Q: What sequence folds into this?
């Protein structure tokens, strides 16, 4: 098995939504673990990567498109996969650094921790709340029942997701994955409206997989490794 | 394998267009955080970046303002948005639409370029129209970003195979021209002079994702940077930047009044700022403005839009009451918020904030007199720093009335007449002769979608002779108001 890592740096405040809120406080809560650390689910991340790759492949010239669609299918799999058609990539959750989470978890486990930390304190230290309302275009006043509040993860944090491959990916797969990674710039809720602006890069054993793979995307002459 | 590999609706994005610009605030702006905690030092705090002191203008705010402008430009004021409008093409389906498309434009959050932007505090109070004094519990204060604060703007437009490209680019150009021309405001009290801004420079990048080299350029584009590129061409006009030419289809119906005055008496609009051990008890309101020569911020005396609007409102009420007319016209013009009936409507009269040029400060010492003894009241000595004018002093008021009717223009002319003839004082201390203006020049234009855009001027020369370009028509507006249906 080989493991690659996807690093996601937040360039703007981001909401990795959980799909619900907190009654009386928030309309949109972020996904967070039992210790209060926000994270992005691997399932969601795989969907985002797959969408970006599909967007890039969809506009390739006819001659190469089918080829790259097959590579995308091999990499991400097809809906309702069987063992034969299952995707080669398995995407883990994108989390904050493991040593930080471990250190805080140890602190929280202490029966009487000196700092009196609780998971909600961790969450609040890494997030803030944004509010917004819609204006009624006819009256020029706030639209009734349009006030919303959403928790956002503060910018500049870096999340890392492991990408597992049972067998090593081909150069073409890596090329597609790198292109999708570079194209992935907006994630989470409100991503067309400023939230969730991110910088993503792919790493193998600490080394960034960069432009040389990027330049191979969309071409046919690559030989399988 | 076909496009239906994953059996989902997928946009075939064939082109991407990236636009950057620099937004500059022209008047103080309150981009509120919406946080009304009792711990806040002011009633409304500014929204700040989560990890620094930079001010934050969210992408959602920019999108809302642009969408509203585009909608008003296309359909006129106070119209409900429809499914097939330009705004929907660019910004996606309306809120009530279950199956609306997602937005074609991606708008970035904008953090102020300055790491610690200049902040000013402004307070206001509601005046009771019956007593003419401050209403109890109606005082408020705001934290404002000073004029001159700059924000980098980032827009990315996604163009799909099925999109009507010409319509999309037209919508984009029209929306962004509103920012460029300073016709879009941000934050609260936009109709009282706050939140005015303009864009001073544009840059664009186009990528055809079907071409290998352009696709690679887009993938490697420096999307993290917020500065304008030094190598890319910078445009002053968004239409030049986009390479399009559009016919004027402005459907907004508005009456613009621009009037220049001089001070006929000293002026005092009280401010909360400037208090220290040596400053006078009361100082005239000042606000930061960039110096025209070196662009550095300096504090200049102003007549605030909130003050002027309040004065106009109360005089309009008196005129209405004198003529025995219905108060509805006041609600229509100046807006209404009724906590009991939940009725709320924004003002149709837009009042701008004006700087006052060529003035000098004067500190006056005053004392309260004990009415019983006739002597000086103990501990009631105070001093006020007022604004004195000269023949050089100039003050330009700008008013905009949206969707005007002829009687409403008539009422506006009566208000202008009262200001012009020093009958309507602005600011405080009117009972001791302060706050009187004297008109010099006024220009009025009625912009609407028709061919004729009538313009009127009123001038007063140094000898007091008044010249009115079309007195008959202006007189007709006033007659419409005095004798019209509003009676």
A:
């Amino acid at each position: 098995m080989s493991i690659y890592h996807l690093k996601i740096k937040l360039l703007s405040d981001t909401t990795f939504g959980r799909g619900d809120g907190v009654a009386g406080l928030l309309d949109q809560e972020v996904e967070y673990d039992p210790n209060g650390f926000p994270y992005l689910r691997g399932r969601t991340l795989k969907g985002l990567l797959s969408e970006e790759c599909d967007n890039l492949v969809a506009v390739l010239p006819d001659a190469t498109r089918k080829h790259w669609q097959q590579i995308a299918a091999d990499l991400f799999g097809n809906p309702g996969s069987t063992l034969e058609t299952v995707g080669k990539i398995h995407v883990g959750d994108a989390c904050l650094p493991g040593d930080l989470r471990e250190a805080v978890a140890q602190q929280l486990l202490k029966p009487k921790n000196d700092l009196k930390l609780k998971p909600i304190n961790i969450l609040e230290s890494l997030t803030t709340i944004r509010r917004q309302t819609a204006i009624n275009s006819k009256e020029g006043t706030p639209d009734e029942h349009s006030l919303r509040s959403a928790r956002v993860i503060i910018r500049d944090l870096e999340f890392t997701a492991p990408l597992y491959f049972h067998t090593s990916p081909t150069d073409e797969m890596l090329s597609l994955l790198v292109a999708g990674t570079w194209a992935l710039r907006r994630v989470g809720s409100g991503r067309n409206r400023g939230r969730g602006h991110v910088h993503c890069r792919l790493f193998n054993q600490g080394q960034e997989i960069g432009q040389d793979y990027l330049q191979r995307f969309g071409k046919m002459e690559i030989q399988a490794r | 394998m076909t496009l239906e590999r994953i059996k989902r609706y997928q946009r075939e994005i064939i082109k991407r267009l990236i636009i950057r610009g620099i937004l500059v605030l022209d008047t103080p702006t309150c981009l509120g955080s919406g946080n009304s905690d009792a711990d806040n030092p002011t009633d409304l705090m500014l929204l700040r970046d989560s990890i620094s002191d930079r001010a934050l203008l969210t992408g959602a705010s920019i999108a809302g303002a642009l969408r509203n402008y585009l909608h008003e430009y296309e359909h006129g004021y106070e119209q409900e948005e429809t499914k097939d409008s330009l705004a929907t093409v660019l910004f996606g389906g309306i809120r009530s639409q279950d199956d609306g498309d997602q937005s074609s434009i991606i708008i970035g959050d904008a953090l102020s370029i300055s790491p610690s932007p200049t902040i000013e505090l402004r307070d206001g109070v509601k005046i009771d129209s019956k007593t003419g004094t401050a209403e109890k519990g109606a005082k408020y204060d705001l934290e404002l970003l000073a004029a001159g604060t700059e924000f980098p703007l980032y827009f990315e437009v996604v163009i799909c195979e099925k999109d009507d490209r010409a319509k999309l680019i037209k919508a984009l150009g029209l929306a962004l021209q509103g920012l460029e021309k300073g016709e879009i405001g941000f934050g609260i009290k936009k109709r009282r002079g706050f939140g005015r801004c303009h864009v001073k420079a544009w840059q664009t990048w186009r990528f055809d994702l079907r071409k290998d080299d352009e696709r690679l350029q887009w993938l490697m584009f420096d999307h993290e940077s917020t500065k304008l590129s030094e190598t890319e061409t910078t445009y002053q006009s968004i239409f030049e930047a986009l390479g399009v030419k559009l016919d004027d289809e402005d459907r907004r119906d508005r009456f613009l009044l621009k009037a220049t005055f001089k001070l006929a008496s000293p002026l005092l609009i009280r401010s909360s700022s400037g208090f220290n051990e040596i400053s006078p008890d009361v100082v005239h309101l000042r606000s930061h403005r960039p110096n025209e020569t070196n662009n550095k911020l300096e504090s200049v005396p102003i007549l605030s839009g909130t003050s002027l609007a309040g004065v106009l409102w109360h005089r309009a009420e008196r005129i209405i009451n004198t003529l025995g007319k219905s108060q509805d016209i006041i609600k229509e013009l100046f807006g209404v918020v009724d906590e009991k009936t939940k009725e709320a409507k924004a003002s149709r009269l837009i009042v701008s904030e004006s700087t006052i040029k060529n003035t000098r400060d004067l500190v006056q010492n005053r004392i309260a007199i004990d009415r019983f003894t006739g002597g000086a009241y103990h501990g009631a000595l105070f001093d006020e720093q007022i604004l004195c004018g000269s023949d050089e002093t100039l003050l330009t008021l700008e008013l905009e009335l949206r969707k005007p009717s002829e009687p409403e223009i008539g009422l506006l002319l009566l208000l202008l007449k009262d200001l012009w003839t020093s009958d309507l004082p602005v600011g405080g201390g009117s009972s001791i002769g302060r706050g009187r203006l004297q008109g010099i020049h006024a220009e009025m234009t009625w912009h609407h979608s028709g061919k004729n855009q009538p313009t009127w001027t009123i001038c007063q020369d140094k000898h007091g002779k008044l010249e009115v370009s079309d007195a008959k028509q202006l007189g007709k507006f006033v007659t419409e108001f005095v004798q019209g249906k509003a009676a």
Summary: Chain A has one domain: 2-215.
